[in-house]
Each structure stands twice: as structure tokens, then as C-alpha cells.
Amino acid sequence: NDNSSRFGKWISLDFDERGRLARAGLRTYLLEKVRLVRQTEGERGFHVFYEALASRKLKNWPSSERESVCVSGSSRGVDGRDDGVLDADSFEERVRALTTLGLDQDGINKAFATLSAVLHLGAVRFVKEHKGATQDSGSSVDPSSRHRLNQASEALKVEPTALELALCRRNVTTAGESLELHLPPDAAARSRDALLKAIYGALFDDLVRSCNRALQADVPTSASIGLLDIFGFEVFATNSFEQLLINYTNERLQAHFNNFVFENEQRLYASEGLEWDAVDFPDNTEVLALIEGSKKSLTPSKTRQTLPSVQQQAAIGLLATIDDECLLVAGRADAETSDAVTDDLDERSARILGERLKKTFINEARYACDAKQERGALFSVHHYAGPVEYSVRGFVAKNMDTLAPDASKLLATSSFANAFDTSSATSLSPERKWGSGRRVTGRRASSLATTTVAQRFRTSLGALLVEIRATCPHFIRCLKPNDANVPDVLEAPRLVEQLRYCGVLEAVRVARAGYPVRLPHAEFARRYRCAAPAGWVYKPPKLDDALDGAQKAALHAARALVLVLAPGAELRVEPATQGDRRRGVAVGKTKVFLRKDAFEALEALLARRTAEAAVRVQKAFRGREARRYLRSARKLAHFVQVRARLKLRRRRRAALSIAGAVRVVGATRKFRASRRIARAAQTAGRGAQARRKLGWLRDAKAARKLQRVARRGEARGSFHRLRSACITLQCLARIQQAKQAKRHEHQLRRDASLVLVDLRKAEVRTDAVRAETAAAIASAKLAKQTHDEKIKMLDLELRRQATARVAARAEVAAVRAERD
Predict the structure, then answer these.
(1) Is-contact 130 137, C-beta < 8 A?
(2) Using only C-alpha atoms, what is the Rg of the chain?
(3) Lowest mean per-residue pLDDT among 71-75, 109-113, 516-520, 597-601
């Protein structure tokens, strides 16, 4: 339910003598404050946080919805509803509603400032604080979330340091001494959660009181209507103290419903003159005795004689045992100066409470706790809707609903305390509940007038039931067809589960314990008269009183019809004093009462007689339809024969005309075929003659072509042979040249080093020749004329050697390049 109110409520509407609404009142039950610090996946917490975040019209509100524990426990955040309703629109509607109820703008601003403080406080984180060797290590506010603490302090009008000390410290007074305990981060977080719940609960109660003040009026009233909208039966994977109280409420309401149905049944049977003593109705007295252990609240109506005896009921119930354990835990907490009072996960308290519950209620039929459940601090209660397994972890802390004394004093002394009534928050401190200003332990503590959540809830629930018993109740059961919130999908197992949890199946069992089917005399006679044997005729009696005669006539007709139908349906007609009603029908003053088997037998007889009558009606109807069909078939056959003969005559005339035309067409086709044959024969003769002449011409032409081809082939053969020989010679010559070039190349590679040596020797010889030439030139100057030829020869030798040297260098360079 996307719009779940997270609490139960009783709305009382008072009317004046003229039927006009004069005033109204609102009473709430068991606000689910646990949703402030823990949200189930797929569900949201309190919608007002998401609406305020979506509106973005309030000052000093967080910008992110994932920082505070109040809204970060589930993936569904702002505008995360399945019904498509926008949170911003809901916020505007909520503000208008507060204005309508009489809150001024200042009051609305203070209320949302308090909610802002709750949201900021939920975003505060704690880290471990390391002290010296002689001091206990405590906790402090995480520096990354200190601005959240400052925002919350500003909204609550308290000092940030005082708020931090109230969350991270605990003052305990023992034997006249005051000790300051340093809380670890997890204990500080639990203290923060308790403060969140206290502030939100106080604000919620103040808004409820404001609503009641706005709806009250000092006018006389004459009638009232009460609307109870309360939580249904709950079964989760892990069921805690809240589920126990919720299911206890449903058990009480189911008991009231059973008693209401029982009394109505008894009143109806008595008015109809039927026997009542043998009727046995189911109830849930054992479960209520187990939970509350109160015999007064379980005392049945004086007229109800079939309820189980309560002599075996336990003198103390589950809730009272839990209350006693709260006293013992408070005494241990004072003695040990520990954090056991506010520790929701105290394993020792859970173990002790589980052992005590098992020892006290192990012999109760509706209580179960095996060895495995005992090890896990679990127990089971068999409710009217089925068994439910509860975990006792957190039972004591949730029942005590305590707030740390330092935090309570901080709220009570703050300048913002006058903005709303903090009595509901400060009254929950251990000092207010377990004694003020002095240590209370042992038997002295049990004598205190303590107040626990269970006691307050039982008191308010008892007052509600007293008010409900003074009214004429009407019961409305709401069923959800499927969990996907889609139309036209009906999940039968889910519906059966809801019917069981709503107590509807229990109501069905109550109804079936007596006569579940009741029909007025006239309706019974009208419905089952056709099931009477064939030939039976009802003869009404003669009555003088016309006004009372119609009712008596209907009664007489119903009785007569029952006597007639009894043999066919194997019914047992039960007078008003007969005790055996296992398969019977009883005729009352205004109605005929049928048990389940009798009703089914009558319905089967009615169905059988109806089927037989239907067969007879069908037989007569089908016979009439068959005769009507035969007459129409005869007329149709005569008409078809006339039409067929006329059509046959027309076909004969058409056949003669078609036959003449066919003969003409056949003769024409025959003549044309003969003409085609003659033309084909002539064409074939002339063709054969032409082909013979053409064959001689082709033979002569072929002979000439063969001669020409033969001569050309001979010439081509000679040319090809000559060209092949030339090509062969060229290939051989080229191969020889290639081989020589290859050998020369290999020789060059082998003599590369020798060429370099020769080059060097040539250079030496060149230097020597140059020297000789210089000498010769010097000597030649003396005998130039006689040595001209020698000079020329020497010059030629020099040029030749230079050329050889250049060629050798080029060859060496080529060899090197090829080698590289």
C-alpha cells in the first residue's frame, strides 16, 4: 500500500439530533516508529520526508535523500510510488490539510523544522574515539557529518556540543556516585535512533492533539459512527515485538467478530424457533489466554455454552511475562551500569527471556519452541490465521521504549521544547519509568507503577473494544488481487492468504457450523418448485387474515415443498427440537435453513430435474422444428424440380444449336488440316530437291577449301620449323652467354681482394712511373728533340694505367655494391 498510514486509528464521528455531523475525534494506536531508522526494501518510510525533499520549498533541508537513515533504507526514494502520485503534489495537499485543521503558518514551519532536525540527525555518523590507556575509548561525531549535527542543533535550538554529549555519553548514578560512560559508535547510533523516535513520536502526538482540538465542538450529540482503520495480520521472515502486538490486536478483533457473529446467529435461530444448543462455533480463546493471560477479557457471553473451558489457562500471559522481564532488565542495568536498557540486540536479555517464556508456556497448546528455536531465541504462536514465528531479540528494549536521561533532559530544557508537547518523549526516560532520583532494584522495582508499551497498548485496546461493543458493527475486508498493482490479474493463492489473515475463513467456518444457507419461504418455493416430482400440485390452504395470510401461505408452501423434495434429495427434515442436523433442512417462521450437504443435495436435485425438463423441452422443440423443416423441404423440392425440368429443356435446345455449330467447326478444321498436309508435302519435295543441289555445291566448295587448307598448312609447317630452329639457336647462344657472364661474375667476386691488391700495386707503380716521368722530363729537357717519341709512349702508358686504375676502382665498387 503506497499510502499506508503506518499506524492504526479510530475515528469517531458524532451527529446531532437532526443527523448533521457535529464533531469528530481521532485516536491512534502503535505508531511504527521503527520505520524512521529501518525501511524494508521495496517500501518507503514516512511519506512526509520524501514530500518535503521533493518540494524544495523548505529551508535547511538536506539536498540528498540518501544521507539520512530516515529515507535511505530502501531503493524507493522521491517519487518512487507505484501509483504515480508525485511527492511534490502530496506536499502541497498536506500543507493545505494542516491549514484546514487550524494550524497557522508559524506552527507549520515549526513542525517541518522539527522534521528537518529528525532528518539531519539521521544523517549523523559516529567514529571511534581513542583515549589514553586509563580511559575508556568512546565515540564522537564523524567530521564529515558534523554539519548535520549543527543543522539539527539549530532546528532544535540546542547547543551542538550538548547534543553530541547526550548522544555519545551516558551518565549513570550508582550508590550515590555519578559515572560518565563513553558509548561506542554502535551504542551512540542506537542512542541517536532512540532520540529520533522520541522527537518524531512527540511531534506526531502533538499533531493528533491539534487535529482533535480542531474537530471538537461543545454541542449536544445523539448518535455516533466509529471507523476503525487498523493494521492487519502480519507474517514476515523475521517477526518482532511490533508483529506480536499487531497480531494480538487482530486476535482480539477476531474474537469480537466471532462473538458478534455467534450472537447474531443465536438471535436469528431463536426468532425462527430453531434449536441452538448443539451448535458448536470455533473461537480463539486459547491464543488470547496465551498472549494476555486475562480471564476477565476472555469470559464468553452467557448465552454461548459451547466455548472451551478456560480452567487450563495460564495465570500470566506473554505480555505480562515480557513486562516482568523489563523490570528485571532495568534492575540489572542499574546494577551493572551498562547499556542494556537501550541495547536492542542484547543477546543475554533475549536468551533469558526466551528461556523464561519456554519454561512458562511450554505446556500451552498454542505455544511452540523446539531446541532449534531456543538456540535462535525464537518461539511460535499458533494464531487463528496460522503459526507465526517470533524473534525475542529486542522485545525488552522495544517494550520499554526508553530514551537516554541526558537526551531527555536536553529536550526538556531546550528553548524549542515549547513548540510541541514533549511529555510523550520525556516520560519515556528510565528515570520517569523506573524511579526518580534513587536506585530501585530487586523486589522494590516490581512494586512500581511502571508503564510499558504493552501495558499502554492493552489499555488503549481494551478501551477501544469497550467502545466497539457498545455499537452495531459492520466489517469491511480489503483484498489485494495481486502484488504487481496491475489490473485484470487475480492471484488465487495470494487472495486465500489474505482471506485467512483477515479472518474471513474463520468467519466462513463460523457460518458453516450452523445453517449457512437461509432462504425466505417465498424464494425457496420459487426456486425449488420446479424440482418437485411430475404431477405434484400445491393446494394452498384457506386463510381468513389477508395480511398474515401471505406469510402463512408461504410457510405452508415451503413446508409442503420440503416434504415433497425430501425423498428425492435424501434430506432429513429437522423440526425445531431435533438434535441431529448432519444432513438436514429446517423450516423456520420466515426462512428455510439449509445445511451445506442439504443445500448441495437440493441443488443437485434441482440440476437433475432441470436437466430432465430441459431434455423434454428440447425433444418437443426439435420435433416441431423437424416437422416444420419437412414441410418447407417438400415445397422446396417441388420448386427445384420445376426449375430443373425447365432448365433441362433449355439445355436440350442449346445442345442442338451447339451440335450444329460443332459440326461446322469440325468440317472447317478438317479442310484446313488437309490443306496444311498438301502444302507440307509440296514443301518437303521441293526442299529435298533443293537440298540435293545444295549438297553438290557444298562438296565442291569443301574440296577447294581442303586444298587451300592443305597448302597453307604445308607452308606454315616449314615456317614454324625454321622459326623453331632459330629460336633454339638463339636460346643456346644466350644460355652460353649467361653462363659466361655468370662465370665472369663469380671470377670477379673471387678476385675482388686481388683487384684491391693490384690497385694498390698499380698506385705504387703509378707513383714510380710519375717519378720516372719526372726524371725523364728533366732529362728530356736536355734532349727534347731526340726523345719525343719516348715521351709520347710514356704519356700513353700513363693514360692507360690511369684508365685501368679507374676501371678497377669502378669494378671494385660494383662488386662491393653487389655484395651488399
Answers:
(1) yes
(2) 59
(3) 71-75
CA 35 – CA 14 distance, rounded (Å): 33
Nearest to 164 by CA among 208, 119, 195, 202: 195
- Cell numbers at residue 435, please? 524511579
State the pLDDT at residue 813: 84
Q: For 305-352, write each residue's pLDDT tens digit.
A: 333 333 333 458 899 999 888 887 765 555 444 444 444 446 778 888
**If you search the block for the grid coordinates 547510533, which residue do you land on?**
189
Phi, psi of 148, rounded to the nearest 5 degrees: -70, -40
Name the phi and psi angles at 594, rounded to 5: -125, 135
User: Residue 132 has what pLDDT?
Assistant: 55
Quickly count: other Cβ atoms within 10 Å of residue 219's Cβ.
Answer: 10
Residue 538, CB-side half-sphere exposure with 13 Å CA sphere = 22
Closest-CA residue to 194 (of 414, 396, 342): 342
DSSP state of 78: T
Find where cell 533475549 sits: 350
Whole-Å CA distances, 539 to 553, 565, 589, 592: 10, 16, 20, 20
CA atoms within 13 A on the CB side of 728: 6
Listing DSSP states for 744-777 in one string gives HHHHHHHTHHHHHHHHHHHHHHHHHHHHHHHHHH
SS3 450: coil
At 471, list the grid cell. 455499537
Nearest in space to 602 (alpha carbons), one of 486, 539, 515, 504: 515
pTM confidence score: 0.64
Contact 198, 428 (CB under 8 A): yes
Phi and psi of 517, rounded to 5°?
Answer: -115, 125
Rounded to whole angstroms, the Cα distance separating 359 from 362 reads 6
H or E segment to which residue 23 belongs: strand 21-29
Assigned C-alpha cell, 783: 734532349
Neighbours of 164 (CB within 10 A): 19
